[in-house]
Amino acid sequence: MIALGWRSSCRGARTSASSVEPLRALPKALGVFLIFDILCVPASVMEKNIEKARGDFFPLLEVPGFPSGKPVKKALIVGERPADLTVYLAAFAVSLGFRVLVADGANSFDPYVVSKFARKEGFPPDELLKKVSVARAFTCHQLATLIRKRLEPFIPSGVPSLVVFLGPCTVFFDEDVPGEEAALLFRRTMAKVEEMSRKGVFFLMSQSFSGLNKRRSFLLKELVRFSDAVLKLKTSADALQVILDKPPLALQRPWEVFEEFKKLT
Predict the structure, then answer these.
(1) Of the candidates 106, 104, 226, 109, which has an alpha carbon nearest to the alpha carbon of residue 173?
(2) What is the pLDDT of residue 49?
(3) pTM score, two decimals?
(4) Which of 30-39, 140-149, 155-164, 180-189 has the lowest mean pLDDT?
(5) Helix residue spans in 96-249 (DSSP H)
(6) Are 135 and 104 in contact (CB under 8 A)?
(7) Which CATH number covers residue 245?
């Protein structure tokens, strides 16, 4: 992995100065790091998935009972610890030939989830991790800059692309930033997400209820309204469950991808 910033996504890993040389164009003061590599998926697989996902990413997830005819370009997973499922789906997308870029605003990207998926599917974990591009931001200003100015140039044309956006609201809950300023930055950030989605980029987002700032809960409500589809994770006494919250719909049968995820966690 090539990293720019404080640390790499592999826990405890460090990078040398020479390893960040190719990305000098990004200011270090931004406080983010990026990891980039090239997907090595057979062209036939990529072409098949481009055609299958044309205008809609959800068919690839095969969520049972999801109504057809409504393109989903911005999907949101909320609830208790939704980041792990979101990262698992990112690894799933990589295996299908998608160019995956992770914008982490909650410091919740866990490379071990990708590694577990890789082992289950018979891939070398390091090879799959190299195909995931990660950027972390630690303040709302960094996150707004990352999404609005830094992300789009790294999205290649002609390749199905998925942006995994972890914690879109989290850094905007920070009380050190005045509420009006945070709300304005959040709305400008999501406006850029909307702009990119109209150009064909898919967004898979996750927002945890943990640490929710009740005074700024309107940001979460805006995020839900902004999303084309919302999946909610719920923990019962003996199991992790998922429900389709937008549109409200009971899953007609077990969601195979989710069942496989639960086996790994």
Answers:
(1) 106
(2) 54
(3) 0.80
(4) 30-39
(5) 111-121, 125-129, 140-145, 179-198, 217-226
(6) yes
(7) 3.40.50.300
